[in-house]
Amino acid sequence: MSELKRHMGLFQLTMYGTGLILGAGIYVLIGEAAGFAGNSVWIAFVMGSIVALFAGFSYAELSSIFPKAAAEYVFIKNAFKNNFFAFLIGWLTAITSIITAATVALGFGGYFAEFVNIPIIVSAIGLLVILSIVNFIGIKESAWTNTIFTIIEASGLILIIVIGFTFANPEPVNYTESPTGFSGIVIAFVLIFFAFIGFEDMANIAEEVKKPKRTLPRAIILSVVISGIIYILVSLAVVRVVNWEELATSAAPIALVAERGLGSEAHILLSAIALFAITNTVLITLIAGSRIFYGMAKEKVFPSILEKIHFKTKTPWISVIVILITSVAFTLIGDIVIVANITVFAIVITFAAVNLSVIVLRYTEPDIERKFKVPINIGKFPILPLFGVGISVYMALQFEIEIVLVGIAIIGIGAIFYKISKNYKPNS
To answer: H or E stretch including 211?
Structure first.
């Protein structure tokens, strides 16, 4: 069978991960988060960075052991020896990739409408089609597109940091002010965690990475640390320029900060940069989603047709088409905050399972080669994954019942799909 080609080194993979994290979430959700946490929104970003780093360490260790597409499925299958549990986590990951791509594409349509008078849904579908073509052409071309877009979107956030810390605000900022106390900070933390997710998708392109057992762990940790630092600095900067009440009511909070600091032209500039950020998020999500489909087909839990590799581009072209079609269908979902919460709910369940996998494998497979190990251990027992499990459970309990029910429904649909799948082979 034709295989995927290994094109990505440490630099490109780190840029890929950073581009995944520094996506649309920060441009849209920081205003919503400020409405809950006030000037203390930076604390929510610190909490998000810590949780992301805990999960990042676990992904890094597991990726150094099992560098394969459909990473979460492979991790959990090997840790728990349970195909059904592994399938459900892989299913959650695949579905959230589709929903995220669709919703962020709608965000693109909203920004694009400021420049060209085209209906949002048309722009969203057009973006999904164009980026799916890039995805089909090859990972090398996709990686370079991502690298350029990541540099552009990071420069926009760095500009916001510079504006924030050079802006002459006559009133000092009270960074401990929160309108609803610590509970508001927690709500903001759960919401903005959507802005941190993405690094986990790095593990799903393992079969296109050079020396994946060494490269993946390094790139995952670098991506999380770089993004976390930028996010915290941005959250400290924005409230120095615009008060949190105004940020909370803005549809484009980052662009508003730029306008307040540099004038109306800066609003246009940041809106344009936001388009690049959103485009980058959609591109990488489509890539990762198609590799999840491909990887699960290789594991014989998705239809085998999804593992077909195009003879020329060396990409899983059937999976690329399937994720395009399903993402277009999901563009009918609108509210990015609602979908962000659905996505985060699914992700925290996945993170809990991945952190548990690290703990279990330390005892069931103590002698397996680990090019990277989670730091801070008592004997075999890794401490940070335990904290990761606890925080994930706590986060899962913070969601509104409607979000939880949607998450359970997605899991239920996955269970039904698993049971009726004709291609499923036990213990394959």
So the answer is: none
Segments forming the whole domain that contains residue 163 = 10-367+377-419
Q: Is the pTM of this model over 0.90?
A: no
Q: Specify whether the CB–CB gap between 220 and 17 falls below 8 A.
A: yes
Looking from the CA of 130 toward its CB, the CA atoms found within 13 Å total: 11
Q: In whole angstroms, what is the distance from residue 174 CA to residue 38 CA? A: 10
DSSP helix/strand/coil, 119: coil
Report the domain count for the chain: 1
How far apart (Å, rounded) are the C-alpha atoms in residues 256 and 85?
45
Asked if the structure places residue 425 within a domain, the reply is no
CB 324 within 8 A of CB 128: yes
Dist CA 61 CA 216 (whole Å): 9
Give the side-chain half-sphere CA count within 13 A for 63.
29
DSSP letter at 366? T
Examine residue 2 and state whether it is found in any structural domain, yes or no: no
CA–CA separation, 279 and 300 (whole Å): 32
CATH of the domain at 382: 1.20.1740.10
Residue 427 lies in a domain: no
pLDDT one digit per residue (tens) for the chain, 428 residues: 456 677 788 988 898 888 878 866 787 789 889 999 999 999 999 999 998 999 999 999 999 999 887 889 999 999 999 999 999 998 988 888 888 888 788 878 877 877 888 888 889 899 999 999 988 887 666 677 778 888 888 899 999 999 999 876 767 889 999 988 999 999 899 888 878 877 887 887 788 888 889 999 999 999 999 999 999 999 999 999 999 999 998 877 888 899 998 888 888 888 888 888 888 888 878 888 888 888 888 888 888 898 888 878 778 899 999 999 988 887 876 566 677 778 888 888 999 999 999 999 999 999 999 999 999 999 999 999 999 999 989 888 888 898 899 889 999 999 998 888 754 454 44
Q: Residue 358 burial by CB count (10 A; 0-12/13-18/19+): exposed, middle or buried?
A: buried
SS3 395: helix
Q: Which of 247, 146, 154, 152 is nearest to 192 (CA)?
A: 247
Residue 214 belongs to a domain: yes
